[in-house]
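Feature request, filed as a ticket because there's no other form

It would be nice if the structure record came with a short human-readable summary line next to the tokens. Right now we just get the raw output. Example of a typical job, pasted below so the devs can see what we mean:
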Amino acid sequence: MCPVKQNQNEPSASLISVAVVLPVHDCYTYTVPENLLQLACPGKRVRVPFGRRKVTGYVIGPATKPHATALKPILDVLDDEPLFPAAMVPFLKWVANYYIHPLGQVINTALPAGLNIVDVAVMALATAGREALATQVPTALERAVLAALTEQPADLRQLRKKVGPPVTWALIHQLRQREWITVASQTRGGKVRPKTVRMVSPTPGAVDPDRLSPQRQAILDLLRQRGDLSVPTLKEQYPTAPSLVRAMHKAGLVKIYEQTIYRDPFGAPIEPDTPPPLTEEQSDALGRLRPLLDRGFQTVLLAGVTGSGKTEIYLQMTQAAVEKGLHALVLVPEIALIAQTERRFRARFGKAVAVLHSGLSQGERYDQWLRIKRGEATIAIGARSCIFAPFDTVGLIIVDEEHDASYKQDGGLNYNARDMAVVRAQHQHALVILGSATPSVQSWHNVGTGKYMTVGLTQRVNRQPLPAIQTVDLSRLRDERGIRRYLTPVLQEALKQTLDRGQQALIFLNRRGFSSFPICAHCGQPIRCKNCDISLTLHKQANAYLCHYCGFSKAAVSTCPACGSNKIKLLGTGTEKIHEALRHLFPQARIARMDRDTMTRRGAMVGLLKDLKDHRIDILVGTQMVTKGHDFPGITLVGVVCADLTLNFPDFRAGERTFQLLAQVAGRAGRGNAPGKVILQTYNPEHFSIVAAKHQDFATFFNQEIGFRQALGYPPFTRMIAIRISGRNADQTADHARALGSAGQELLAADGDHQHQIQIMGPIEAPLARIANHHRWQLLVKSAHATRLHQFVHELVLGQKAPTIRSGVRVVIDVDPLFLM
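Raw output as currently delivered:
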């Protein structure tokens, strides 16, 4: 039941505001029938008429009746309890407003997948259609559609799959007017349901043992001894239990009922742990952080070198929050890291922990969401989507590796979970801790301006010094041939010495595959993706050339598409080639690879980390996956194959990303008892990002980088919004991009204030001008005034005078973009 308060100054209790799951930016007012009045609470889904359709919407709250509008009633309330608390509504509205994204789609992104239901038009063959197919002579396309419907009814997507894309709604309407087909509305979706199990309980009263078989008597005895049991539990002891229980139910010996259970995403249980002794720095840090709990909104940057024990700070701050009756959110940048973090938190907090991330099945995610919503879990751990965990109140939010670009969602709602963590904490008067060994320029600038506090950890827990870093100038080795260009003699010798000592090594290259630039040895043409403006990458294990953007693949035995030659030169390198080369150089060593190709299977990451911990791996080769928060105490040598890959991106953050990546991967060495060493191979040994990473000197890097940002007017001194235009037709896409650019300049000219405070860059073709057969343009808008910037972009793209978007062209607004490719 949802209690409803009402007086003359409040909105009507029978009117509600609904955000529909469609690309519309407004909320809509609906009436609530008397029989649904006590059920239509904020946070619940409702079925509402919208134009000619019936769609899912979310109740946002009560509404006032708009002037001169005939209101429609809601059709149904779909949930027994709210899916998110009413306290989250202001936060969700802020997200929709800041990221210029429809509120209904924001909520849809926040909720577990598979909940929403929609109406789909389904076509069926009518009697007249069968006769027409047999006697009359329709067109070839009409005959194909009618023939496809003779098998079974189908929606438009299914018809296009059977017949081909020429099937249009215009054709469907013509066939319906001739009464050859019927079109009916069918409800689909809502795939996720609570999981139930059949439970068995004994009926009261004595039973004559002589009337029962031994197995039935044994089942009754077990139920009376242990209480109600599930059918699967009974089946473990009595394989024929399902059929026996059904017969016993008919005879009145037992009762069978359904009970809702949670799907278990965790797997094996974990032994409880005890907090380790704290270092002096950790104790000081906790002494400064604990008093901030339950004292209102505050943001603290926990800047601690790699291996300084930030995770133990997180655990003890979470313990302090739980003791105060507060809920805690813990965000990690990638799913690959969740298993490690989740295990440590479960060892400390047991069943109080829930996990939320896209690696769970839809059912598991739904169950974890309900555990949080019902208050059965007080701690939620997950990747970026965990920021939407449905806690009524949050007292502590922790963002580990806050600098990591993985917190930025790319596609759909383009949000940054780190920034949203700060805003959610502000809405709920909570403490947010941003942790990193290499803080983002944005966060460190906020420390300098007084927006954030900072707490530092300058020493490793075991008092080991940071690893010694040696640079190798690759430009002096241009004449080397073969693998020696990538695994230099210096690195090979360091690997040999490490293996001789029985220690482990990590080789880092932020590029997967075997060859990243295959070209024809006869005509010099690169082997390119047919859908994207980029070279394919050879993956030897898959025996195929793959595109890392659209997934296109072709066999590794393919010939040159330009001249037909089968002589392909495999230039460039990736983790697969490095892995193969190391196997030849060190045949006795046990070598493993950690990249997206090898970590796709569920549990693969946990298994690899266990093998590394148990010293069943001597050399680990990996991409940036290996740089993020992993604790490898046995690794004493880190080799960086090429430190310059990220420096060459056409992006103002290239230097920042390079420094962070190198400092993070260097921090994997020497975390145990033995000292660490890093071999950093680079073509630019004098670049300030490389020099700062070599000396692990964030302050020097920041001071130089922030000067460049200020001089060029880039974030954090301005805010930026990218408007991305894409479409299959190159001319239409370019025309709309230019129309947006012209409209932007007209808006600036019409408003003197805008003209001086807002800058438009572009439109220009994106650096990757074509991906998945979609041509791409972008327009960048920046300003030091965030509110004015958002108003301008909203008016430019969604306002009354905004250029009309032609069919086939898509416009995406990306607020605070991280990637400009």
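Something like this underneath would help us a lot:
Residues 730-750 form the longest helix (21 residues).
The first strand starts at residue 12 and ends at 20.
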